[in-house]
């Protein structure tokens, strides 16, 4: 059973427009990343209350706090960044949503010319930080969802599997993003087969392999790229998956802090996923 949600900031910075567009699509959940151009973890308490009032009034809930926790260099100061996770966990309580999206750190110095073959020398610190994060989340009854983002430790199927197996914590699961694997030129089907035992969340976007270097600067509708999304959805239906499928289409572009799709294109992105789900024999709940 799949519950459809959305990174609604891809629709518009305006929370009212986010909600109205999703209502028209029959979607009632949001993965809360930003409103009015401000990241969820940088919002004031008053801004948070205003957004919650809007959601409550429209019958909306959150699928997760779409935090940027773990999207810093592995050699950056740790304690101040850990405070961001504490804020995300606090917001879980505010919104009655026990899930936080996280990452597994950029290369030292956030170097863009980093050789992934050098990751082993930083692996222990990645594991140490993820384990500390999972312990903190568990104490609050929260589950962390690791997204396989470009350039972080866990951008490859093998390193995602390594960190989840090694941390080995029930409060750390995987958010499977087929497009990110395609963007990084990994095989999304291989990635699914390796990580599905830990997967508890789906991010739905599709991409042509090779990324900008191959001339692909934005996402495509689910099923129209190299993410092989239908494979993972069919398998998840077969094995009785119950959880969220979160639309993050990036149809007009995307980057480290989010993406843009717009209110005009978002309904097509929702329908493209629903078509895949129907063809897989899945149900939406």
Report on the structure:
The protein is of the alpha/beta class and 285 residues long. The chain has one domain: Divalent-metal-dependent TIM barrel enzymes (TIM Barrel), CATH 3.20.20.150. It has nine helices and twelve strands. The strands form four sheets. It has a six-stranded parallel beta sheet with strand order 1-10-9-8-7-6. Strand 11 and strand 12 form a beta hairpin. The model has no long low-confidence stretch (mean pLDDT 96).
- Uncertain stretches of 5 or more adjacent residues: none
Secondary structure tally, helices: 9
Number of strands: 12
Largest sheet: 6 strands, parallel
Name the CATH architecture. Alpha-Beta Barrel
CATH homologous superfamily descriptor: Divalent-metal-dependent TIM barrel enzymes
Q: Which topology does CATH recognise?
A: TIM Barrel
The CATH first-level class comes to Alpha Beta
Query: How far apart, in Å, are the first and last alpha carbons?
Result: 6 Å
* Strand content bin: 15-25%
Along the chain, the helix and strand elements come as EHEEEHEHEHEHEHHEHEEEH
- Gross morphology: globular
Rg:
18 Å
Q: What structural category characterises the helix and strand content?
A: alpha/beta
Helix content: 25-40%
Structural domains: how many? 1
Q: Which strand order spans the largest sheet, edge to edge or round the barrel?
A: 1-10-9-8-7-6
What is the residue-averaged pLDDT?
A: 96
Please outline what is shown here:
By secondary structure, the chain is of the alpha/beta class. Helices cover 38% and strands 18% of the residues.
């Amino acid at each position: 059973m799949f519950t459809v949600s959305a990174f609604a900031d891809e629709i518009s910075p305006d929370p009212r427009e986010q909600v109205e567009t999703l209502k028209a699509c029959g979607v009632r959940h949001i993965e809360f990343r930003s409103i009015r151009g401000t990241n969820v973890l940088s919002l004031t308490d008053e801004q948070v209350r205003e957004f919650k009032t809007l959601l409550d009034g429209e019958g909306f809930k959150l699928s997760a706090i779409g935090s940027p926790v773990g999207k810093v260099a592995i050699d950056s100061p740790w304690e101040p960044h850990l405070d961001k996770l504490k804020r995300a966990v606090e917001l879980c309580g505010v919104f009655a949503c026990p899930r936080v999206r996280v990452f597994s750190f950029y290369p030292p110095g956030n170097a863009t010319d980093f050789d992934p073959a050098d990751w082993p020398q930083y692996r222990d610190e990645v594991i140490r930080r993820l384990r500390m994060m999972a312990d903190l989340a568990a104490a609050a009854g929260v589950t962390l969802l690791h997204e396989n983002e470009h350039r972080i430790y866990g951008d490859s199927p093998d390193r995602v599997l390594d960190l989840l197996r090694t941390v080995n914590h029930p409060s750390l699961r995987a958010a499977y993003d087929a497009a990110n694997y395609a963007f990084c030129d990994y095989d999304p089907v291989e990635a699914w087969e390796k990580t599905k035992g830990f997967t508890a969340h789906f991010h739905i976007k599709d991409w042509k392999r090779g990324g900008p270097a191959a001339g692909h600067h934005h996402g495509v509708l689910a099923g129209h790229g190299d993410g092989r999304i239908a494979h993972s959805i069919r398998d998840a239906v077969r094995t009785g998956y119950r959880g969220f499928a979160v639309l993050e289409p990036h149809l007009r572009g995307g980057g480290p802090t989010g993406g843009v799709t717009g209110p005009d294109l978002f309904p097509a992105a929702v329908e493209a996923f629903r078509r895949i789900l129907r063809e897989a024999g899945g149900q939406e709940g």
